[in-house]
């Protein structure tokens, strides 16, 4: 399998003295949908900045599809599309002009640039807005325009730095569908996000970065399998008069308010055993939800293990 | 000069720049025309009528070349400084930096945009001046080449200013406190023959003085300076400023972390 991006011993110290990256090594395979997670200030955006050449690195190597970014500047930039965290387009330009101009920067002739702009603006639901000033777009539309702009030269590797930040849930899910579609079509995607549910839904592999170091780099499946307990909140149909306090091997039930019970399952026990135990107490369950996102639990436990923030 | 994709990138930057200054024509093209017209009316007609001749020409005819050059200098400079700084401020400069565009293409695009505005305003002012003075052109080659080289020099200067600027004050300091005094003291309104010997020498240290006088020579055929030396100086400035711009872009000063 071809490696889409490979970084080795990547380091970055800013003039202020801040050490943002302390020797990161990472590989992302072609076709992957890869999550790069970490708390604020962990070094994710610096990593993306270095790969996209907006940040100069202090040490280490970066290769995109096997080519060194220092010696194959043109081809590595052609292979790369970046959607940054911050809004970074001219607020005074029309939506269509922003995307077409970017196509021009990548050397696409005017006709092809117009075709590609239309294709991606349509796919991202912005075609009707093409003649509007970009500053007039809503937050979600601005994000989608930045995705269209990053895709207009059809890169093989797309890096998205928190693309759904501040985007409502409906729009977020439609963006997920779009990203999954282009990933299935062959585009390798690296995603940073604070929505861990998003990473769990979309990504096959994951790296967690904290204080400038990679503290976890594995497949999403393996990581989630490591989770040996699951906590659920169960809602009863009636007011719970008595205490609910069951503590059996692999099953713990505890009343948390007049209508809710926390169930913690481990050792292979399933949710049916919790519902059956409550049924024996005459408690009927009408709905349930995860207490916390599974990946969130793992993420926090990793950060605690690294001595970082997690509480 | 450019291979295909570089040529497309260059064209794209130039088109974007021209689109920008024509979109905001009320801020970019119109004010200099009003200002220079006022100079024509007040200094040329009202005051100039009392001054009589300067350098062997009617005062109005004497100041027209300097005023055209002033418009070219100010607009070439301010187009590049405000456009590039605005891109830095909005972070849209990142669009350029992530794309496979060599630094010299980025620089050429912005410089061409600055020259386009400078020459555009210069042309409008020249047409305006025809209402006030009968202008012939003594040497078309010198006239055209000096105006092109001068707008190139000040576009490069504007680019350096933009690279170092951190806020909007920084893009107005140089035009206000350096450029305007140099233009006013650069022989736009007077011949240095009128100055005492000391100030005559001081004036000769002002590069704009050479540009204005060379342009005046191209139009009127009269000049206070050696035209060949003026062109040599212009070329030296271009080489120096161009080298400086490329070095700054390569270092990523002001644009990369």
Short key terms for the protein model shown above:
heterodimer; A: 311 residues; alpha/beta; Rossmann fold; Alpha-Beta Plaits; six-stranded mixed β-sheet; five-stranded antiparallel β-sheet; 15 strands; B: 257 residues; mainly alpha; two-stranded antiparallel sheet; 2 strands
Q: Give the neighbour order of strands across the main sheet of chain A.
A: 6-7-8-3-9-10
Count of the domains of chain A: 2
| Number of helical regions of chain B | 11
CATH superfamily caption of the largest domain in chain A: P-loop containing nucleotide triphosphate hydrolases
Q: Helix tally of chain A?
A: 10
Order of helices and strands of chain B: HHHEEHHHHHHHH
Topology (SSEs and partners):
The complex is a heterodimer of chains A (311) and B (257).
Chain A: E1 3-13, E2 19-29, E3 33-37, H1 44-51, E4 59-64, E5 67-68, H2 73-78, E6 80-83, H3 95-105, H4 110-123, H5 139-151, E7 157-161, H6 169-184, E8 188-192, H7 196-202, E9 205-210, E10 213-219, H8 220-225, E11 229-236, E12 245-248, E13 251-257, E14 260-266, H9 271-280, E15 285-290, H10 294-305
Parallel strand pairs in A: 3-8, 3-9, 6-7, 7-8
Antiparallel strand pairs in A: 1-2, 1-4, 4-5, 9-10, 11-14, 11-15, 12-13, 13-14
Helix pairs in contact in A: 3-4, 3-5, 4-5
Chain B: H1 4-23, H2 25-28, H3 30-51, E1 53-54, E2 57-58, H4 59-90, H5 93-98, H6 103-129, H7 140-164, H8 170-184, H9 197-203, H10 207-220, H11 227-251
Antiparallel strand pairs in B: 1-2
Explain this structure.
- The complex is a heterodimer of chains A (311) and B (257).
- Chain A has 311 residues and is α/β, with parallel strands linked by helices.
- Chain A folds into two domains: 3-225, 3-Layer(aba) Sandwich (Rossmann fold); 229-299, Alpha-Beta Plaits.
- Chain A is built from ten helices and 15 strands.
- Chain A has helices at 44-51, 73-78, 95-105, 110-123, 139-151, 169-184, 196-202, 220-225, 271-280, 294-305; strands spanning 3-13, 19-29, 33-37, 59-64, 67-68, 80-83, 157-161, 188-192, 205-210, 213-219, 229-236, 245-248, 251-257, 260-266, 285-290.
- Chain A has a six-stranded mixed β-sheet with strand order 6-7-8-3-9-10, with helices on both faces. Chain A has a five-stranded antiparallel β-sheet with strand order 12-13-14-11-15, covered by helices on one side. Chain A has a four-stranded antiparallel β-sheet with strand order 2-1-4-5.
- In chain A, a hairpin with a 2-residue loop joins strand 13 (251-257) and strand 14.
- The mean pLDDT of chain A is 85.
- By secondary structure, chain B is an all-alpha fold.
- Chain B contains eleven helices and two strands, in the order H-H-H-E-E-H-H-H-H-H-H-H-H.
- Chain B has helices at 4-23, 25-28, 30-51, 59-90, 93-98, 103-129, 140-164, 170-184, 197-203, 207-220, 227-251, and strands at residues 53-54, 57-58.
- Chain B is globular.
- Chain B starts with a helix and ends in a 6-residue tail after the last helix.
- The mean pLDDT of chain B is 90.
